[in-house]
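Open question from group meeting: does this chain pack into something compact, or does most of it stay loose? Before anyone orders reagents, we agreed to write out a predicted structure and look at it together. Recording both the input and the output here so the notebook holds the full record.
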Amino acid sequence: MSRLEDKLGSGRIALTAELPVVDGGGVPEVERRLEPLREWVDAVNVTDNTAAHAHASPLAVAIATLQCGVEPVMQLVCRDRNRLALESEIVGAAMHGIENLCCLTGDDVTDGDEPEARAVFDLSGTELVGVARTLSEGRYLSGRPLDPPPKLFIGAVESAGSPPFEERLGRASRKADAGARFLQLQIGFVPSHLEGFMEAAGAAGLCERLAFMPSISILRSVRALRFLDEKVPGVEVPESVLARVENASDPEEECFELACELASHALSVSGVAGLHLISFRRDDAVARLCERLGIAAVAER
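Structure tokens returned:
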């Protein structure tokens, strides 16, 4: 059982963080990027060509992360591979002891820097969750036996704060039906959106089926906030938040204070099982945030 599965299954607060993208440099480069995170998080998300930009493969980086003594959450997107390739990636990852899997549909190639690439989208993110569950039950999609079956802790993503709001709970429920056991929620800057989503999830019994982990983004500037607001689907940054950071005497520190407030609020919402931290700063912001919130280092937790 992975540490993340054990932590979430026991009802203890779990933390994951997003590993900055890797373009080379071998295991030492992965080690360097892990350094600000390793003491504080239970597992680290290894992204898969995020925003449709090519980087080192998630399988390779996840293996390197394991070699560095940190548990990975390997992301897989459906944009770049058909079902055969996705199945082989999952089974190959399991051979190396990678259990945590986060399934996403993926951004379209037109969002990236090689828009002439041919998108695949043989499956959706929800369908990929179902593929992973089928593999974990000991068979490929064809029905051919898979022995031994891979040990997997399957997750997905969802937005708690983007329209159409009334469809978000249904999407989360379908992912749970497909086999997801945790959901990392999209970055949100409107606390009431998270409250409403989690209240509805609780009423629908989803909090007993899924561990919800809202994402908290630690930024540096109002420019970064505007980028999220304008360019990242599903993210809304209110004008009041933009003005707060823009008018601050120290915008970088104000971004950190904002992240602390959003994280503290998220942990206070009923049904929230943990946090997914995304720091765009190459400093000790994750450690500072955990200390501010009174969250002990992994070794003490």
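Observations to bring back to the group:
Residues 251-268 form the longest helix (18 residues).
Residues 3-293 form a domain with the TIM Barrel fold (CATH 3.20.20.220).
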